[in-house]
Design brief:
14 helices, single chain, six-stranded mixed β-sheet, 332 residues, globular, alpha+beta, five-stranded mixed β-sheet
Amino acid sequence: MTERLTHFQEDVLADILQSIHLRSTLYCRAKMSAPWGFRVSERAVASFHIVTGGRCWLTVDGIDTPPVLLTEGDLVILPRGHAHTMTDHPQTPVTRLEELVPKQPVEMDGTFYSAGQGVVTTLVCGGLLLEDHTTNPLISILPPFLHLKSQQGQPHLWLRAIVQVVKAEASANQLAAETVIMRFSEILFIQAVRTYMRTVDDGKRGWFNALQDPQIGQALALIQHQPEEPWTVESLACRVSLSRSAFSAKFKQLVGESPMQYITRVRLTKAAAMLRTHPATLVEVATSIGYDSEVAFSKAFRRYFGIAPGAYRQGKRPPTEARTLENGHQVQ
């Protein structure tokens, strides 16, 4: 960023990063000999690929960007699960991953590999099923993919450490290994976002630029830290010394949605986090985020998440999300 954020605004980012929580994670290792190519279908899972040896090409569907070269030490994350292909060369034919995996052998250590005879590329691939990925404001404003380039052919130190821990935990099959892998996967995602924020050009920051704006940045901080307040467009505009119309227009331009839509998003994301981690009653949760009644809160929650807050607390999830990882290949 060209300007430093205030401590108040930095707290907004920290609060949102803390709200990131994984519901499940999936890792696999791959040893691909050219020619090779596989396609990952669109899904409600944040896909990622780490190049641990060699090089390959990423092509993302639906965006006007040429194939991206990935080299040893690179990490790429597709936070909203865009369909994409990974190939040894942009022109290599691809096979859907779901069709390719059953046809290819798996080594004793659990590594999936292709039977080609050419140059070898090794990968650590996977999926991260994020809680509240449809309502968390951070997820909605990230680009289709984050590309963290290696440092002179070496991965970032934190990335190398995470990969080593995950491999060790998965191979040893120790008690609570799944929980350990989950926590490190959360760190992987958060570190990737932090690195992206430090390196991306200002013109591509989108919502992050809103935090730099004196009025809108202050409004975002107020909403994030005081969701229980009875905010209106008028009251927020008054707090940041803008007229109602000027504030509303500027907020939508920088944030991408109206102030009231954003307030609802923040409130319900915080409510979901409370339901996962606190024993508070539904009335207490509703009150803490600014709803006058449990009924109003429940209706809003169901509209956003497709499920009642009580069922959400019990660990139930919409059927479409429950199926997102069921065909995955778990690292061994």
